[in-house]
């Protein structure tokens, strides 16, 4: 018989290869058998510590793509981001006075940027950041975020939401029942400045105030006569209120401060000048629109530390109609003596200033890069900087505010 050496060697190689493969397979099976069985992954929720005076909420409207608005939860002592929730399309946020929850007013559409509109008020657990109730609203004012679009009363039992659907009104939300208890129509007036547990005030187009008492669950409205001229020297909507007693400091475009006691019969004290408090000449209003001097400006341009009565105002040098210009300094003013305490130069112009309400208070400013600056209020020294926390930081919310 004729032999084919090449075929014989190929067959031998094939047999040897199969034997090697078999040996490898046996070894591999043994190795696989020794490996531990992978357990099924289980998801969980990390629980944050209880709310503290230095754990703040920061509103980011994300102006270039506002549908992605958000609220950041920040540990201001460490300068650390703890979490984030959505605040879709010009949302607003307010916190329960004792930190038991926080509420976000937001708006969505069924087809993203169109379709059926839905206005919502989700309530969030402050430790898990999960939604505990998702209230559907009859409407809300879909405007640039302002603190006084969404506020809460002193004991946290009522949330007030300014609405323009279809006309100016404030929806009163019962936070225990999670429903709208009533709607108060306020033609010609806007926003809500809370006082105590049973009332709020709105500011009106004629320069006066509309005062709403909800005592015994029934709304009664009174009006005060105008105290400023909206055409010549309007007041900033972002003026601070001390909710416990309704004391409010309305700041005008020129830099006048109107101390006001909000109630069913709100009273306005004579105005004092921020510039005169600093030893400067009082700033002119619309009668001299091109006069350049130090003026208040920005978005959330002022904040009040309740216990000390110290008012913090963003200031810049400009003419009368520069009321939205970012501040280059924060001026700290004593509201009791009407005197300047200090001027704090800022590392970058800011449109926002905020403050915590404890005995070791922190101050907050922003810049146009989305950075958050954290300051020691008592020394006026910068402590930390959180680079690019967000895109458009509009305001902060602290415990008890």
From TrEMBL:
Its EC number is 1.4.99.3. SUPFAM superfamilies: YVTN repeat-like/Quinoprotein amine dehydrogenase. It comes from the Bacteria. InterPro entries: Host-pathogen_enzymatic-act (IPR051200), Metamine_DH_Hvc (IPR009451), Quino_amine_DH_bsu (IPR011044), WD40/YVTN_repeat-like_dom_sf (IPR015943). GO terms for molecular function: aliphatic amine dehydrogenase activity. Keywords: Disulfide bond, Electron transport, Oxidoreductase, Periplasm, Signal, Transport. Disulfide bonds join 189-204. One of its GO terms (cellular component) is periplasmic space. It is found in: Periplasm. The keyword Oxidoreductase applies. Residues 1-33 form the signal peptide. Its main location: periplasm. It is an enzyme of class 1 (oxidoreductase). Belongs to the aromatic amine dehydrogenase heavy chain family. This is Amine dehydrogenase. The lineage of its organism: Bacteria, Pseudomonadati, Pseudomonadota, Alphaproteobacteria, Acetobacterales. The gene is mauB.
């Amino acid at each position: 018989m004729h032999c084919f050496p090449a075929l014989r060697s190929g067959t031998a190689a094939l047999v040897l290869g199969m034997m090697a493969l078999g040996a490898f397979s046996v070894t591999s099976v043994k190795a696989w058998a020794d490996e531990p069985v992978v357990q099924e992954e289980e998801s969980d929720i990390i629980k944050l510590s209880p709310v503290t005076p230095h754990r703040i909420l920061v509103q980011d409207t994300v102006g270039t793509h506002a549908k992605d608005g958000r609220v950041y939860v920040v540990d201001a002592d460490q300068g650390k981001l703890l979490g984030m929730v959505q605040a879709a399309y010009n949302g607003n946020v307010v916190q329960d006075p004792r930190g038991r929850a926080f509420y976000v007013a937001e708006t969505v559409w069924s087809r993203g940027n169109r379709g059926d509109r839905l206005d919502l008020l989700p309530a969030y657990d402050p430790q898990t950041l999960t939604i505990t109730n998702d209230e559907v609203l009859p409407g809300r004012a879909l405007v640039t975020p302002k603190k006084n679009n969404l506020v809460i009363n002193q004991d946290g039992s009522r949330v007030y939401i300014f609405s323009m659907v279809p006309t100016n009104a404030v929806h009163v939300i019962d936070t225990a029942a999670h429903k709208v208890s009533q709607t108060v129509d306020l033609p010609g007036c806007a926003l809500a400045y809370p006082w105590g547990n049973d009332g709020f005030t709105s500011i009106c187009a004629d320069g006066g105030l509309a005062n709403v008492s909800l005592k015994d669950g029934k709304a009664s409205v009174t009006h005060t006569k105008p105290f400023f001229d909206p055409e010549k020297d309007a007041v900033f909507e972002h003026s601070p209120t001390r909710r416990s007693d309704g004391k409010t400091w309305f700041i005008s475009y020129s830099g006048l401060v109107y101390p006001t006691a909000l109630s069913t019969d709100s009273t306005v004290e004579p105005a004092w000048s921020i510039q005169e408090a600093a030893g400067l000449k009082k700033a002119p209003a619309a009668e001299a629109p091109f006069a350049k001097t130090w003026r208040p400006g920005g978005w959330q341009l002022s904040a009040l530390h309740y216990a000390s009565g110290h008012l913090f105002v963003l200031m810049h040098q400009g003419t009368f109609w520069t009321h939205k210009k970012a501040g280059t300094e924060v001026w700290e003013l004593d509201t009791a003596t009407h005197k300047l305490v200090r001027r704090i130069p800022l590392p970058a112009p800011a449109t926002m200033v905020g403050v915590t309400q404890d005995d070791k208070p922190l101050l907050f400013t922003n810049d146009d890069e989305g950075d958050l600056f954290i300051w020691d209020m008592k020394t006026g020294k910068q402590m930390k900087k959180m680079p690019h926390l967000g895109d458009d930081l509009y305001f902060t919310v602290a415990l008890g505010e």
